[in-house]
Structures are given as C-alpha cells and as structure tokens.
Design goal:
Number of strands: 9
Largest sheet: 7 strands, parallel
Helix content: 40-55%
Shape: globular
Structural class: alpha/beta
Strand order of the largest sheet: 3-2-1-4-7-8-9
Radius of gyration: 18 Å
C-alpha cells in the first residue's frame, strides 16, 4: 500500500510516538487526523502539519465516531495507528493496601478497550473502500509494550492491558482477512517519552545502558519507521513486533 494521498488516523497523536508517526505520514504525502485528549498540543501540531485535530477519548463511542467521520471527510480512510495509552504504576499489594480496582479498570479501558473501540470502527469504515491492486482496503497498527511479555513490578494493570492488545492482534487479522484489512501490533521497549526525559540525566543514561544494542532510548522516529514498513509491506499481518534493541526487562 502506498502512503501518498491516503487518509490515516493517529490516536495519541498530540505527542510522543503518535506525533512522530503523524510527522512521518505527512512527509510521505498522507492526510492525517490527530485524535487525542491533549487539545492544546494536538491543535498546535495539526496547525504545524496542516492537518486535522479532533478531541477524542478513545473509550467513548461518540468521540471515536467523530474521529472516523472527520477522516472520511478527508477521503477514504486507509490506516489507523493507535498510540493512545496510560501507564500508572501500582503493586498488587503495596504500603497502602491492595491495588485500587478503579486504577486497574481505567488502564484496561484506555489501553485495551480504547484500542479495540477505535479498531472496530475504523475497520468498518475501511471495509467500504475499493481495494488496492494488492487487494487491501486498510491497515490497523496497534501499540502494545514489552511489558506485555516481561512486565515489571508495579505493572500488573499496564502489562495486562498491553498483553490484551498483543493477544487480539491475530484474531482481528483473521476476522478482517476477507475484507482485505490487516492488523499489526508494535511492542516498544524503553522509549524517550516526556516522562523519561523529565528524569535526571543519570537515570536516563542508566535506562539507555540497559538496552543491549543500540544502547540508547528509542525515539518516535524509530517507531514511525516501523509503522512505515508495516503500511507498505502487505505480508506483515497478524503479528506483534518487539521494537526494543533486544532488551528483556528485569523485575524492577
């Protein structure tokens, strides 16, 4: 699938991995709808790139439908990249007692249910597309984490939500195969996020040193390169790809 002139939705598009992906897609000639709850940076990036921003809580059907409609107004929707997510940390039993159930539910709602909500609605819109010469009608790219496989202390909720994203990749790909819609997942390792960049430099250096090679934090550009490869290679389907420099996370 060529990226040029296609319409893409990027959730969590106001910053981090989503913003890096949006920049890549626009550079490649795509039209992009940025979906996020961070209105000020989202609107600023949309203005910079000459694209569209829509406020969206991915757990809400009405918000998700509004994003899909905004994309369809730009043309035929061919791609969805789900980068929206949250990552609070809490032990199953900590100093203040058991893990708050509300926190666990919220993480699963945003990271897992929100990802599926956007995927199902985007796929429905894509199913109406005329197929490409390859037979494709669209591609879904979701974001898990290496925590799905080696979650650390305090990551029960986060790891469960991301394992769910990885776990539904193949069934969704199989569900949508007759429609010519692919589903892939990226599982990033330790990436340079605003949270990480707010840590002391020695902590950042320690995190980077824990990565076998390359011994540096991942970047939004690294993530965007993999998105590009997935979009343009129609044989990539139904799989979760670790993007982590060969790291395997220690307990803490």
């Amino acid at each position: 699938m060529d990226i040029k002139d296609k319409v893409f939705i990027v959730t969590g598009g106001a910053s981090g991995l989503g913003a890096g992906t949006a920049r890549m897609l626009v550079k490649e000639g795509a039209k992009v709808v940025l979906a996020d709850v961070q209105d000020e940076p989202g609107q600023a990036l949309a203005k910079e790139l000459g694209q569209t921003y829509v406020h969206c809580d991915v757990t809400q059907e009405a918000d998700a439908q509004a994003v899909i409609e905004a994309a369809r107004q730009q043309g035929r929707l061919f791609g969805l990249v789900n980068c929206a997510g949250i990552a609070p940390a809490s032990r199953t039993v900590g100093k203040n007692g058991p893990h708050a159930l509300e926190t666990f539910q919220k993480v699963v709602m945003v990271n897992l249910v929100g990802t599926f909500n956007m995927s199902r609605l985007a796929a429905a819109a894509m199913s109406e597309n005329e197929p490409e010469p390859t037979g494709e009608r669209g591609v879904l790219i979701n974001t898990a984490s290496v925590a799905a496989f080696d979650g650390q202390i305090g990551q029960a909720a986060y790891a469960a939500s991301k394992a769910g994203v990885a776990g539904m990749t193949l069934p969704i790909a199989r569900d949508l195969s007759k429609l010519g819609i692919r589903c892939m997942t990226i599982a990033p390792g330790i990436f340079g996020t605003p949270m990480v960049y707010g840590m002391p430099q020695e902590v950042q250096d320690s995190l980077a040193a824990s990565i076998p090679f390359p011994s540096r934090l991942g970047t939004p550009e690294d993530y965007a390169k993999l998105v590009h490869s997935i979009v343009t290679n129609e044989m990539l389907n139904g799989e979760t790809i670790r993007l982590d420099g060969a790291i395997r996370m220690a307990p803490k």
